[in-house]
Amino acid sequence: MAVETERIPAPPRRLGDRLAVLGEREFTRFFIGYTTSLLGSSMAPVAVAFAVLDGGGSGTELGWVLAARILPLVLVLLAGGVITDRLGSRRLMLGSDVLRGLVQALFAALLAAGHAPVWAMVALVAVWGIGEGLFTPAFGAILPDLVRRRELLADGNTLLGLARSVSTVAGPALAGLVTAVQGPAAVLLIDALTYGVGAVALVGLRLPERPEAGGGDSVFGELRAGWAEFAARPWLWITTAQVGLFNLLVWAPFLVLGPLLSQRELGGARAWGLVMGGYGAGAVLGGLLMLGRRPQRPLAVATVAAFGWALPSAALATAAPLVGVAAAALVAGVGSAVCGTLYGATMQHWVPPELLGRVTSFGSLGAFVAGPLGLAAAGPLSDRFGAGGVLLAGAVWQVVAGAVVLALPAVRDRRWEEGPDH
After folding, report:
1. What predicted TM-score, i.e. pTM, was given to this entire model?
2. If I label 359, which of 176, 179, 229, 417 is the partner at 20 to 30 A Cα–Cα?
3. CA-atom Rg of the chain in angstroms
4. What is the mean pLDDT of residues 234-262?
5. Residue 192 belongs to what domain range?
């Protein structure tokens, strides 16, 4: 009979140990450039939303503009995954930063010259989305090249998540202020400049040679190899489906109807900036809590944290005051940081590096593919059922879906010590 031994908890890690990943030169260089570009990127959605609304656009038109970013992103994700595994992440990310910087500079110029028509905003945001779609799988695959010690991958993910979180605090709040004082054109110009900083950081990276991509010489052969890797892992496609439905039913309506309700009831751009700043503050807190921690059941912890995403929609649906909506967004931000860190580290831990770009692209495709539909439908649905009804339905869905996913053994019972074939 097997004897069960007592598990002695590991001693808590010192702050210096938790920040050891900053000793990796290439990671630190990338971290600085990425953090800078993130600040501008987190400011831009507030500027775009109020460029539409201040120009007399409706919630439906705002939904179309936001969908114009996501749809091209989805369409190029798989191509981005193949290119990433063929050429490496840096080249693709560099091209994406240059493209997005030029788009935002042109967008700013059009707004500064006068009211840009909705069709022009849709076109520019669509090109912006193409850049995002190319960047996403490359970003998902670059961390193992930046961090040589595998045990530091989780800390690297945490610090990158913290960068996103800090930018989510500072960006919307700063964007709300700049938009109110100088207009959205100034915000988009700042975004263009920060993309330039990110590009400079990427140019200076020295990365190792990557293994050759497998799966055949053709693009379709390589995609088949990536799909086989993705489909062979139930925990991966289950969590991807959960995130995809979240984006359709919860996050897309929140992004469209949140600014609309803020303009009508909470005080406009500054109020929405505070809400999104609260979300970012929660994400910072969540990132700090995760730094140096590696829960034994990462996907179970991530799924529990995802329940928090129901709160901001519920707060808006029930006409909570601004402080209540911001507090709900803060809790959701904590969950976002926990989910992002653990999902990213889990994928990088078990997926072979030479397939990571393609597997990331399939995961991102599943997460984002329904987003444009949710963005486009949020306005018309709110006209029929009311903004509160649409948001409340999304909040209920998030709770029910989280409970179902948490009950599945493939997610609930997954542990770090499991072998690579699980």
Report:
1. 0.66
2. 417
3. 21
4. 87
5. 21-207+217-412
